[in-house]
Design goal:
With about 240 residues, the chain is of the alpha/beta class. The protein has one domain (about 1-220): Spore Coat Polysaccharide Biosynthesis Protein SpsA, Chain A (Alpha-Beta Complex), CATH 3.90.550.10. The chain has helices at about 15-20, 35-45, 55-65, 85-90, 115-120, 175-190, 200-210, 225-235, and strands at about 1-5, 25-30, 30, 50-55, 75-80, 100-105, 110, 125-130, 140-145, 150-155, 165-175, 210-215, 220. Strands 1, 4, 5, 6, 8, 9, 10, 11 and 12 form a nine-stranded mixed sheet that branches. Strands 2-3 form a two-stranded antiparallel sheet.
Length: about 240
């Protein structure tokens, strides 16, 4: 299995904590978000990692090479349009042939190692990792699913009836090699000059392939704003180290 991390963004809503660094280099204790993420991936034997970089890309690349020398193999992909286009463009840039199953992660996530281990050990290859239904906010990607956990609909930041079975996306998904190639094929047909979310491609992907949801026991935190960051620091962030 190979890892794919989307890390092109510059964190416009995190200007003070970042101090002109890439969003993924946000400090959590004495480590960074992306350090904690890659350390957990390596511990799960995911040692081939593709990273889409953008803002201050050289700074991020040198940091990763220095901290993970001889521990994993990086393939860096440059997104020159990280300001003007949505994250769907970062997904589109993974053009190099990948002949393995993949795990895809956004670079602004904090999660526990046990959460990742359990997720990767589930046999189903096409799986969305989600938070609990009670954690849904207006900014979430929502998966509506059947009793057997098969995803039947995807909503992008829309208010929907909370009586139905649904979970908010965590920003982590695993796909079989075939499903990932289908995912890229769908994206390649989109208008990539507009700001769009790569999760839009999930709507067509679930029509072609069976995807299930797995709800995490421990919350996966996404750090988008300064308030998100302050909340993490105020709470017990050490459980993510």
């Amino acid at each position: 299995m190979q890892g794919i991390i989307y890390a092109a963004g510059y964190g416009s809503r995190l200007s003070r904590p970042l101090n002109l660094k890439p969003k993924s280099l946000l400090q959590i204790g004495n480590k960074t978000i992306i350090y904690l993420m890659i350390k957990k991936l390596i511990s799960c034997r995911v040692t081939k990692i593709n990273i889409v970089v953008g803002y201050k890309s050289k700074l991020l690349q040198s940091y990763l090479i220095k901290n993970f020398k001889n521990k994993c193999t990086f393939n860096f992909i440059k997104n020159k349009f990280y300001k003007s286009r949505g994250n769907i463009y970062s997904a589109y840039l993974i053009k190099k042939k990948i002949n393995e199953d993949v795990i895809i992660l956004n670079s602004d996530l904090l999660f526990q190692k046990k959460t990742l281990v359990k997720f990767l050990n589930i046999k189903h290859k096409n799986l969305f990792l989600t938070n609990k239904k009670a954690d849904i906010t207006k900014d979430d990607i929502i998966f509506v699913y059947k009793k057997n956990k098969d995803v039947k609909k995807v909503y992008i930041k829309k208010k929907i009836n909370k009586k139905i079975s649904m979970s908010p996306a965590s920003g982590i998904v695993k796909m079989s090699n075939k499903s990932f190639n289908d995912f890229l094929s769908i994206i390649s047909k989109e208008n990539l000059t507009k700001k769009k979310y790569y999760e839009e491609a999930y709507k067509k992907l679930i029509e072609r392939e069976i995807f299930k949801v797995h709800q995490a026991t421990e919350r996966i935190e996404e750090i988008d704003t300064e308030d998100d960051y302050k909340k993490i620091i105020r709470l017990n962030y050490k459980k993510y180290l």
